[in-house]
Amino acid sequence: MPSDDVTPSVTPRPRPSHHSGPGYVANPLAPDFELNDQLRDAAARWLNLVPVEHRHDGRKSAKDALETLQEHTRSCPDHPVRALWVAHRHLKDPVPAIRIASLVLASEALWWLGYFEDARRAAQAAADADPTSAQALWRLAVALYRQGRFDEAGERLDKLLNLANQFAPAWALRGQVKVWLEADNPDAGRTDFATAAALTSDSGTWVVPYRMARADFMATADAEIRVHDSETGGGSPGVAVDVSLLPDKSQVERGVDPDRRWHLEVPGSVDRDSDNLFAPLGGEWAAGERPQVSFGTRFVLYQRNIENLCKDKATLRDEIRKSVAELYDAALDLRAPITIKGAPEQHAERADIPGDEDG
After folding, report:
1. d(CA 312, CA 175)
2. Torsion of CA 151, 155, 160, 162, to 10 degrees
3. C-alpha torsion 283→289→293→294, nearest 10
């Protein structure tokens, strides 16, 4: 990950598995402001992320700068480099609202590119320039959450919900933050999750997580491993299965996805996670042999993150079954399609930004 002070020249980066797509509602009364020296230096480094071939906008121009920025917000998940270039072009616009919108779009693009500290910095500058911008606060909260700075993320979400209390994803993300801050408390964030669910017209988008006792969760995982072995004729005598409530916070601070569902450790190989299903492991199996998981392999299931997706016991069992299947697929390097449906992968970070209707 890039440090606070150096953004390297562009290299392909893995996309975050859970993204946040900011848009914005421009505030025509936004106060004037200037980019400070630190931010100007950062913006100059952001330009290094944009290859020369992306430094143009071949599409028909929008009617005004805000429409252009909004258009690129819609396509940002698929074209983050192009969005970053457009955001950078508008950072010197004479209209303060345009510069704030540019910072919000830059934060989105940088997030997609995996530069979470730079994404935080851009969102922080937008929020500093206009503390009433719900869009800037949302981007800032998402960036802080992705960095494992949960207390700070919660503070920004508190401010955001004072401005946009009908924005369901902010309630859901605040629920996730509270789970991180009180992982041992099965009721942590329940009120926020319930509020998000109640605000959602599309039933099932946000759920109140079903919680299971750790012993029951472990027993369910063990049962799924036995079922897998009986169905495949394979074996897992060397597999150690662990259940942790959440990933280690220090790992999240180093760039691990806080919402990952599982982690795989294979002796002498590259560790893999639920947000990185196709990292190379290597290894070959002789024709006709039943694949065996390597001795010393460790499966780790993150209970709270799996539960957070599930509204009831049946869905939770399906999600555990899917996670176990993904672990075996990764451990054996099969790269086979997982047919188990499990729970919908709904995460607050995926949501669009708050608009006028959320106030």
Report:
1. 17
2. 140
3. -60
> 181 falls in which pLDDT band (50, 70, 90)?
very high
Per residue in 256-279, pLDDT (tens digit) is 999 999 998 877 655 556 665 444
Confidence tier at 346 by pLDDT (50, 70, 90): low
Angle between helices 80-89 and 65-75 (to 10 degrees): 160
Tokens of 13: 């980066």
Domain 37-204+348-358 shares a fold with domain 214-274+291-331:
no
Segment of 20-24, 83-87, 98-102, 176-180 carrying the highest mean pLDDT:
176-180
Look at residue 118 and tell me whether its pLDDT is greater than 90: yes
Measured CA to CA, the distance from residue 164 to residue 208 in angstroms comes to 21
Give the span between the Cα atoms of 287 and 35, in whole angstroms. 62
CATH code given to domain 214-274+291-331: 3.30.2010.20
The CATH number of the structural domain formed by 37-204+348-358 is: 1.25.40.10
Torsion from C-alpha of 62, 129, 171, 176, nearest 10 degrees: 110
Task: Name which of 177, 99, 181 is nearest 142 in CA terms.
Answer: 177
Q: Name every residue whose Cβ is closer than 8 Å to that of residue 254 and which is 6 or more positions away in sequence.
A: 1
Band (pLDDT 50/70/90 cuts) for residue 340 is low
Sequence spans of domains, the chain = 37-204+348-358, 214-274+291-331
Q: Residue 139 has which token pair?
A: 């981007």
What span, in angstroms and rounded, lies between the C-alpha atoms of 224 and 230? 10
Enter the tokens of residue 317: 């069992």
- Whole-angstrom Cα Rg for the chain: 22
Distance CA 69, CA 173 (A): 25
Rounded-to-integer distance, Cα 327 and Cα 329, Å? 5
